[in-house]
Amino acid sequence: MRRGWWVGLAIGTLFAALASLFLQRPHARDLPPAPSHYLDDQAGLLSPAFAAAKDQYIQHLSRTMRIAQINVVILPTVPDGDVEGFTIRAASAWKVGTGGVDNGLVLFIFRDARMLRLEVGYGLESIITDATASGLLSQHIVPAFARGQYEVGVENFLDALDKTLEASEAADHRASPMAAMLPFVINVLRNAPRIALQGWRMFVAADTQERMVMSLFALVLLAALVRALVGVLQGIPALLMLPVRLYSSPLWREMGTASVRAQFSPKTFFTRQPPFLLRVFEELQLGEIITTVYFLVGIVGGIAFLFVGSSVLIGGLGHYGGAGATVQWPALSTCTDLALC
Description:
Distance between the termini: 68 Å
Number of helices: 14
Strand content: 5-15%
Order of helices and strands: HEHEHEEHHHHHHHHHHHE
CATH architecture of the domain at 39-176 and 316-334: Roll
Structural class: alpha/beta
CATH class of the domain at 39-176 and 316-334: Alpha Beta
Number of strands: 5
């Protein structure tokens, strides 16, 4: 069985090596330079006085609250036509965020396409979920932008974002670490497909050496995960039947006998394994249960290490996986919704 694992891993490594050699790497696309201000209006959508005032406000918000590093970038057009692809690459390349926590938050406004994109860094995905990001855009920016009131829309967005971040900070102080674990696990499971797609994009964009390292890491991780899942599945029947075995086991009647007490005396306990203890492990299948718990702890710890600790190991700065929301506001000439116009 163990030999089969190594054979499978070797075959997988061979296929990964072939994919690394023959898969073509896409040409890198040029990106605009990193924004020089917290609010960088390159499309002339806002008045200079308003942009300067809000730039100072965002700077104060980012440095004082220290929950998020916020940037607002206004561009005339989408450089390559792919809104989300561009915003992920741009926010990642610009390294928006604070080292070690990956708390970047970038609002992109594309004037000509009338598109809004809120890009959320890995460290803020539990606070600014996709639904929250969509609400910040559609409820606070779109109604004003649909009326041509661009400064009002930006003002409303920043006010709503400030309240959202403050509420999350207060909730974090009230919540216990265990209470925060469930939202974290749910967030990981919800974002698993998107994270896998982002990993594939990183693999395609990498050179041959980087692909080899990523492939080997992925294969070892996959092998460990499969082994852990198999161990958990093998131990579930023993765990489910434990109450029945505890109820029907004759071991309880033997616990108080003189022969059992003698097995646990200091004189014999450290020189010989008590036969009674071995019977308990065998009849209750405690070995399988302990192995199951061990693998479960390993899986949870591995997930926490990859999705939380990795931000510290790799710098935690400017990593975006596509979390956020994309919304388009209606043109003034076509706006028919009185709630928006």
